[in-house]
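Async update (no meeting this week)

Hi team, since we skipped the sync, here's where things stand on the single-chain job. The sequence we agreed to prioritize is pasted below, unchanged from the tracker. I ran it this morning and attached the output directly underneath so nobody has to dig for it. Comments welcome in thread, and please keep replies under the output.
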Amino acid sequence: MKNPTQHPIHELLAERWSPYAIDPEKTVSTDDLTGLFEAARWTMSSYNAQPWRYIVGVRGRSDEVWQQIYDVLLEGNQPWAKNAPVLALGLAEHNFEYNGKPNKAALHDLGAASAALTFEATARGMVVHQMIGIDPDKAVQIFAIPASIEPLTALAIGYVGNADAVEDEFAQRDNRKRERKALQDLILAGSL
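Output:
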């Protein structure tokens, strides 16, 4: 689903979409899933620290972890995320490994890695719906996450499903026109 852009951009960027309707019947191959996380692995990061971490649950391969991630999602995300064949948590290591000092770029770098993963998914005909709606404290408890690592996001990974796979509220969101702020509204100073 290519979207109109104000200026030409790579088609993967224009096609990227985060639907609520994910096909509950279609599985993600190990090769495809490994490719997504390999794309994240090769993302740029401050001091090459690579502070992103993921916990990945795949229905049919790691059902217990999938269920634990699902249980960490906030109630508003569970009705539609239940269809995703893959659920992941995105975490950030807040301290540099080389000197133990705070890494102020950790959240940025996790976002960049998750974006790379998302574009790789788009290139493979898949979708990723990232969400902030998780219970971080519950994630820390369930997965015994060390204090320097913060669970921040969740990712539902799979293939676009039919609108009838989700409640009307979510199907309506998927059918809304995709809009973005005007480019001139994003540039606060200087010019292009």
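Quick observations from my side:
The two ends are 28 Å apart (CA to CA).
The domain at 11-186 is CATH 3.40.109.10 (NADH Oxidase).
Reply here if anything looks off.
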